[in-house]
């Protein structure tokens, strides 16, 4: 799983193989400045909680609650059916409340795995492919520098009066499966129970 909307070359995700420059030193000064802002924002969070709406493969949709702390996140689905997913330690574990079925997914070569790094840095083994700005918005796209064809992660932020807030997570994996989260009613740096990040069994 995992939209990325942007890539290094005109061939989309496939074009990533031709732009394996790591980090962001190759970008213009304004882009580097905004990447530093994103790094500072993400590494300054102790927690982020929000409602989400998800778009996925084959028009699949869902909604629920998203909770992030550095190195971990939890998604509790209410629609289309009750399900809980926890990501940590390089993997994502999902449990269906209806059937009790548990699914394990590795995130070590999946773009979502970039969110599990702490501290988050978009240099060295990460490749920044694009920085985009809009009216009170900022978006950056990143991939694994040594193998960018594994997928692309795009982080979307509101940028109001110089203050960033994460409002979207989009991605596409190596098999071109698209994934997107839109975040609403974002609350930052509120207490979060450690029980949120116990892996489902």
Automatic annotation (TrEMBL):
Keywords: Signal
CDD domains with a match to the protein in the record: LolA
Alphabetized InterPro entries for the sequence: LolA/LolB/LppX, OM_lipoprot_carrier_LolA-like
Name of this protein: Outer membrane lipoprotein carrier protein LolA
């Amino acid at each position: 799983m995992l939209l990325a909307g942007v890539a290094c070359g005109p061939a989309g995700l496939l074009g990533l193989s031709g732009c394996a420059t790591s980090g962001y030193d190759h970008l213009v000064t304004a882009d580097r400045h905004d990447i530093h802002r994103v790094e500072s924002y993400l590494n300054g969070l102790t927690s982020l909680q929000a409602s989400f709406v998800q778009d996925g493969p084959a028009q699949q949709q869902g909604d629920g609650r998203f909770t992030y702390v550095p190195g971990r996140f939890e998604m509790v689905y209410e629609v289309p059916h009750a399900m809980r997913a926890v990501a940590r330690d390089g993997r994502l574990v999902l449990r269906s409340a209806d059937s009790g079925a548990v699914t394990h997914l590795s995130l070590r070569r999946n773009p979502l795995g970039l969110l599990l790094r702490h501290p988050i840095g978009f240099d060295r083994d990460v490749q920044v492919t694009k920085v985009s700005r809009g009216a009170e918005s900022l978006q950056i796209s990143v991939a694994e520098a040594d193998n960018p064809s594994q997928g692309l992660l795009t982080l979307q932020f509101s940028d109001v009066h110089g203050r960033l807030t994460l409002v979207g997570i989009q991605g596409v994996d190596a098999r071109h499966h698209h994934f997107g989260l839109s975040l609403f009613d974002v609350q930052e740096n509120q207490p979060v129970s450690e029980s949120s990040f116990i892996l489902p069994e």
